[in-house]
Amino acid sequence: MLDLGDLDKIDRIVRVAVRDELGIEPVEMANKWDGGKLVLWPREEGMAAKELPLETFFHKIVMVRDRLRTLEQRINAHAKLSDEEKVELQQYVTRCYGSLTTFNSLFKDKADHFKGSSTEG
Question: Which of 39, 57, 30 is nearest to 113 (CA)?
């Protein structure tokens, strides 16, 4: 029977293999956020705030970005979608990236930023 330590090792191995296969590079959070936390305050008084380490939040944002990239690859490689359908779906994914640009300040390297559609053509 596998214990949690074994499952963690397997999880890390699979993640590394998937990153290698997809060409996903590790992404670093900007140094100014190291050790930081995200605090969500409910509107109602008397309710506890929800705290989350920024590293955890950042990891989730990076996972969303990586999954969007995978979705783009799958759209482009899909045999049954027409070129018009692929373009339409790609535009939707690009708008999703645009919605996530708020989180760009978390990234250490500008090359890792989300980029949405622009009005420049």
Answer: 30
Q: Is the residue at 51 inside a domain?
A: yes
Domain ranges, residue 53: 20-112
Domain count of the fold of the chain: 1
Rounded Cα gap, residues 56 and 24, in angstroms: 19
- Predicted TM-score of the model (pTM): 0.68
Q: What is the pLDDT of residues 62-82, one digit of tens each?
A: 999 889 988 999 999 999 999
Tell me which H or E stretch contains 50: strand 50-53
Do residues 69 and 62 lie in contact, with contact meaning Cβ atoms separated by under 8 Å? no
Domain membership of residue 105 (yes or no) is yes
Residue 10 counted as domain residue: no
Rounded Cα gap, residues 117 and 89, in angstroms = 13
